[in-house]
């Protein structure tokens, strides 16, 4: 619709003004309302994310990665499951050290299960989308298990400190009740901290690009996709990482510093070697886990990129859970002996039905 208005000027001339309905609407709106209307038109609710992962790799490369990661995942599950079985069934490993080790293996199984199966599926399918809720759940599980493992490693360092520096009071200090409380506290801290990080990560709406340049929903990448300024969320995640990583690190460094002083004061070289062997395996796990976690959650986003994020993500999602059983078993004589006994029990159990069948045959002959 077009409207025509005749306006008398002071000089007696008539000016003709033609305006359309759209012009009238735009004239009646204030600058603030026009910007809000533009924001509403441009905004869209993100209901799913696309995990880019290894999508841009060649089909042959994806097939090779699928075979490699499937083998690593199967190996990690088998070895961690064996450690859980041994530490919970072998009476000779009835000590706090192996109690914590069994729970560490359980955390490793939970950690790799939250990320690796999904990556394996995406390597052989073209659909790489995950729902918004699935991404939230995956991130919460990664937060929960990752934080619980950091806390548990600190408790394991404290356990080694008490065992080496206070051997006479070890059974009293690290009683079964204390060990259960320490493990429960690591899980509780992981749950509560996961809720906080989940709120920080999803406090802003998502109306931008929904492509995640990784093979799972990682917090810094997801936060960068949110609308508005993500600087506050990234700062809170950085501060939380300082508390979660450096607080256990202080306990670990203090424990091993005192262990080192105690070892050097001993005159027996054999005792030094055994203690160093036990503590070196724990320190190796700590260095791997904390280094990868610090790079992922404490580096500024400007230093991140798909080529840098994926290797570190692979390090703490599948390499470390696979290496933990190898490090603890091959550097520990008691674990080697327990594995040998478990294998012998398995061979005897498999041989028992055959022996029974031979006895029944001889009986009826």
From TrEMBL:
A GO MF term: G protein-coupled receptor activity
InterPro entries (alphabetical): GPCR_Rhodpsn (IPR000276), GPCR_Rhodpsn_7TM (IPR017452), Olfact_rcpt (IPR000725)
Family, similarity comment: Belongs to the G-protein coupled receptor 1 family.
Compartments where found: Cell membrane
One Pfam family hit: 7tm_4
Function (record text): Possible taste receptor.
Principal place of residence: membrane
Protein name: Olfactory receptor
Organism per entry: Myodes glareolus (Bank vole)
Keywords in alphabetical order: Cell membrane, G-protein coupled receptor, Membrane, Olfaction, Receptor, Sensory transduction, Transducer, Transmembrane, Transmembrane helix
Residues passing through the membrane, by range: 63-86, 98-117, 137-158, 178-196, 241-264, 276-298, 313-331
Keyword Magnesium in annotation: no
Membrane topology: Multi-pass membrane protein
Domain G-protein coupled receptors family 1 profile as annotated: residue spans: 79-328
Superkingdom of the source species: Eukaryota
GO cellular component terms, A-Z: plasma membrane
């Amino acid at each position: 619709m077009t409207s025509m208005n005749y306006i008398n000027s002071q000089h007696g001339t008539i000016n003709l003004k033609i305006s359309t309905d759209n012009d009238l609407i735009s004239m009646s709106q204030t600058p603030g309302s026009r910007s809000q209307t533009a924001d509403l038109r441009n905004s869209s609710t993100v209901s799913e994310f696309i995990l880019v992962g290894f999508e841009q790799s060649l089909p042959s490369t994806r097939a090779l990665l699928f075979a490699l990661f499937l083998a690593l995942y199967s190996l990690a599950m088998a070895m961690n499951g064996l450690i859980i079985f041994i530490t919970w069934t072998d009476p000779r490993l009835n000590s706090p050290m192996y109690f914590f080790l069994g729970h560490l293996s359980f955390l490793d199984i939970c950690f790799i299960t939250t990320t690796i199966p999904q990556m394996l599926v995406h390597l052989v399918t073209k659909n790489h989308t995950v729902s918004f809720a699935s991404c939230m759940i995956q991130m919460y599980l990664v937060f929960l298990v990752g934080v619980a493992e950091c806390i548990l490693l600190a408790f394991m360092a404290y356990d080694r400190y008490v065992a080496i520096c206070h051997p006479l009071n070890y059974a009293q200090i690290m009683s079964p009740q204390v060990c259960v409380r320490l493990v429960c506290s690591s899980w509780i801290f992981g749950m509560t901290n996961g809720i906080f990080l989940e709120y920080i990560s999803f406090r802003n709406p998502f109306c931008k690009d929904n492509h995640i340049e990784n093979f799972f929903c990682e917090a810094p990448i997801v936060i960068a996709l949110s609308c508005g300024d993500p600087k506050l969320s990234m700062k809170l995640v950085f501060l939380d990482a300082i508390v979660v990583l450096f607080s256990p690190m202080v306990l670990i460094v203090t424990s091993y510093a005192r262990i080192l002083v105690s070892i050097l004061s001993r005159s027996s070289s054999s005792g030094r070697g055994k203690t160093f062997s036990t503590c070196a395996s724990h320190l190796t796990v700590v260095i791997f886990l904390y280094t990868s976690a610090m790079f992922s959650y404490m580096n500024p986003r400007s230093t991140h990129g798909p080529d840098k994020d994926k290797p570190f993500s692979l390090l703490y999602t599948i390499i470390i859970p696979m290496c933990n059983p190898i490090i603890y078993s091959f550097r520990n004589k008691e674990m080697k002996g327990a594995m040998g006994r478990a294998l012998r029990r398995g061979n005897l159990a498999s041989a028992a039905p055959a022996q029974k069948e031979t006895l029944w045959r001889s009986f009826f002959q």
